[in-house]
Amino acid sequence: MNASAPIADLGPLNRAREQRAWYFTDWAASAFQTTVAGVLFAPYLISVAENAVGEHGRIHLLGLSIAPGSLPSYVITLSTVLSVFFYPVIGAYADRIARKPDLLVAFSWIGAAAAGGLFFMSGENWLYGSIAFIVANLAGGAAIVVSDSILPVISTEDERDRVSSNGWAYGYAGGGLLLAVNFLMVSLHDSIGLDKEMAVRLSLLSAAVWWAAFMVIPWRGIRRHEPVAVEAVEGGVLTRSFGQLWATLKDLRNYPVALTFLAAYLFFNDGIQTVINSASTFGTKELGFGDGFVLGTYLLVQLVGIGGAILFARVAGRHGAKKVILAGLVGWMAIVTVALVVPEKKMVAFLLLGVAIGIVLGGTQALARSYFSLFIPRGKEAEYFSLYHAMDRGTSWFGTLTFGLVYQFADSYRPAIFALIAFFVLGALLLLRVDTERGIREAGNARPAVI
User: Fold this and answer.
1) What span, in angstroms and rounded, lies between the C-alpha atoms of 183 and 37?
2) pTM, whole model, 2 decimals?
C-alpha cells in the first residue's frame, strides 16, 4: 500500500447519513402540528367549552371573561409566553452537552404523552384539555429548539437551505400522511361505527403515537457531537446553562444583524403561525364548512407544501434566501387580504386559498430557519434557536392575542385574520434591513456561494 495515498474524506457521507435521520424530526413532530395544533384542537376545544357554558356564554377563569371562540387563541398565547422563559434555558443547556439527540427525544416523548392525554378531553373539561395542550406545545417546541440547533452541526453553509427545506418537506409528507388517515376517520366515522367526537379523540391520540414512534429514527441516527466554543462559566451544568444564557444575551449587541432578523421573524412568523393555527376555526366557524372538508383542505396544504418547500429551496439556490423569503411574505399579504372577502361555503375558493398557503408556507419557514443559521456563532446554536423558537412553536403571542382580541370585539373571524397583514408588512420592512454579508462575517461563518 502506498503510504502517501490520500485518505477518503468521509465527512460528506457521514453528514448525509445524519441529515437523513434528522429529517424524521420534522416527519414525527408534524403529526402534532397538523392533526392537533393545525386542525382538530381549536374547533374541538371550542366545542367542549361551548358544552360547558353554551354557544353564547362566557368562560370565567381568574377573573377573566372569555368567549369560547377566543379560547384557543388565548391558550396558545399563554403557551408561547411561557416558552419565552423556558426555551432559552433549554438552549443554553443543549449547547453544553454532546447528547443532544437524547435531549431531543426526551422532550418529544414528554410532548407526545401530553398530546396523547388530549384523548381524555371530552364533555365539559376544557380546562384539562387546555393544560394538556400547553404542556405538549411547550415540550414540542423545546424538542424543535434542540433539533434545529443540530442543523448547523450536520450541514455546511452551502447545504443549509437544501437540508432545512428537505426537513420541511419530510414534515409535510409525514404530517400529511397521518392527516389523510384522520381525514378518512373523521369523515367516515359513521361507516366505521364511531361517533364524531370519538373519531376526533382517536385522531388526537394517533398524532401522539406517531410523534413518539418516529422520533426513534433521529435518536438512533444522529451522532453525539461534542460541544464547541462554549462560554467558560463556573458551577454545575444547570448553573452553567443560566450563566451561558446571560453571557449570550449580553453579547447579542455584537451581532446586530442576527438581532434585526429575529425582530423581522418575530413579526412575520407571528402572522404565519396565527393564520395556520386559526385556519380550521376560520373554515368551520366563519365559512360554514364541516370538519371533514376543512381537514381535507389542510391535507391539500400539506401536499402542496412538499413541492413549495423544494421549489423555494431551488429558487433560493439561484437568487438567495432573503429575496425568496420576501417574495413569500408578499404572498402571505395577498392570502390574508383574500380571506377578508372569500365567500361562505364556496369550496373552490377555499381550496384555492389552501393551495396558495401550501406554496408559500413551507418555503418561507424552511428558508427562514436556514437563513438565520448563517448568523449564529459556533457553540451557541441551541441558544440562538431557543430565542428563534420562543417566537415560533405554538405561535408568538402578539399574533394570537391580536386575532383573539379582534374576534372578541368584532365577533367575526374575517377582520381578525386580515389584521395579521400588519405582521407581514412589518416583518418584510425589517427583513429589508438585514445585511446578509455582514451577519455572516460577524458570526464567523463561511459565506455560501449564493446569498
Assistant:
1) 15
2) 0.80
